[in-house]
Amino acid sequence: MQQEAIVLHKMRHSHLLKSIFGILLLLLSVTCFTGLFAKENRFNTNRADAHAPISIMGDHTHSKGESMFSYRYMYMEMPKLISGTNSLSTSEVFNSDGRYVVSPTYMYMHMHMIGVMYASSDNLTFTTMTSFRYNIMDHNIFSGAVPLIEANEGSETFRARASGLGDFSTGFLYKFFDRKRIRIHGGLELTFPSGSITIKDRIPSPGGSQRSLLPSAMQLGSGTYDFIPSLTYQHQFRFYSYAFQVKGRLPTALNKQGYRNGHMAENIFWNSIRFVDWFAMNLGFSYIFQGRQVGVQNDLLLNPPFAPERRTVTTAFGENYGGDRIDVIIGMNFLVHTARINGLRFATDIRVPVYQRRNGIQIETIIAVTVGLQQIL
Ligand SMILES: [Cu+2]
Q1: Which pLDDT score is estimated for 281?
Q2: Could you list the residue range(s) of the whole structural domain that residue 174 is in?
Q3: Which among 207, 234, 250, 336 has the fewest CB atoms less than 10 Å away?
Q4: Which residues have their alpha-adjacent CB atom under 5 A from ion ligand 1?
C-alpha cells in the first residue's frame, strides 16, 4: 500500500516535470523564431497583447501610484462522468467498487470575481480579490435505493444548489526584472476562508427529504488558509508577445470540517498577437495538477443506513478529487482609448480541456468561459 503510494507520488512528479520541460522547450523555440521580429526596446504595458487571457490571474504589475479595479464573470460546465481518462455512465458508478447509491450527472458553476490592484512602487503591486459563487449539481439515484427514491417523491433525479461569497485573497506581486522587453515578476498571495463550507440544501435522505450538508464539491470556499506563490515571465516583440507562468495553491492545514483540498500546481504558457494597439488575440496552454483531497468531511453520511455495504455519493470521498488537466485557452483582449475613457480593458477567453486524467470518479469539465473588465484608475 505504502509502496503503491510512493510509486503514485513519483508518477505525478514525473508528469509535472515533463510538462514543465515541455513548456520550457516550446518557450525556447518561440523565442528563437520571434527574435526575427524584435525591434523596439521597452516593454509597453499600454498594448492589448501586454495582458494574459482574462482567466489568468496575476499576469501583470502596475506603475507607481496606479490602481486597477477588475470584474470577471466565469461560467463552467461539467456534463459528463470520468474515471481516470475514461468516461463512464451512472450505472457504472452504481456498479463500481464503491457501489455508490447517488451519482452526480451534471454541474454548472457561475462565478463573479472582483479584484483591486495597487502599486506602491514600479516594482511592488498589492492585490486583493474575492468572488460570489453559484453552484448547481444534478444527481441520479440508483434504482435499487428504494428508501431514497421514496424520499424523493418517486423521482430518480434531484438537484442541489449553493450560492454565496467565496474565499478572499490578498498578497503582492514583485517585479524584479524589466529589461530589453522582458519582464519577470514573482508573487505571493494568501487566501482567507471567507467562503462557507457548511452550506446545506434540501436533498433526499433516508428519513425523507431534508436540509443536509452538501459535499465539498458544492461548497463555496476551501475552508483553509492557502498560499499562492507564482512566477511570471513576459517577453514582448513588435506585433507579438509570449509569457509563461508557474503557480501553486498550497493549503496549510485541515479546515474546521476536517479536510483540505489537494495541493495544486499550474503551468501556463500563452502567446498573444497584436493586430492593432487596441486589439490582440491570444492562444494559451495550461497544465493543472491537483492532489487528492485529504481528510474526511465531517457530518456527511458516507454509507446509507439501509445498505451499509454501499457508499452514498462520489463527492463525499476525498479519493474522488484531484487529477491532471490540460486546457487550450483562446482569448481576445480589447483596450479602450477615447478622450473620456482611458485604461479600460475588455477581454474574454474560452478554456477547453483537451486532456483529463481524474482521480476516482468525478464529473468532467468540458468548457470554461470568462468575460472581464479592468479599469485603471
Ligand atoms: Cu492590474
Answers
A1: 95
A2: 2-376
A3: 207
A4: 68, 117
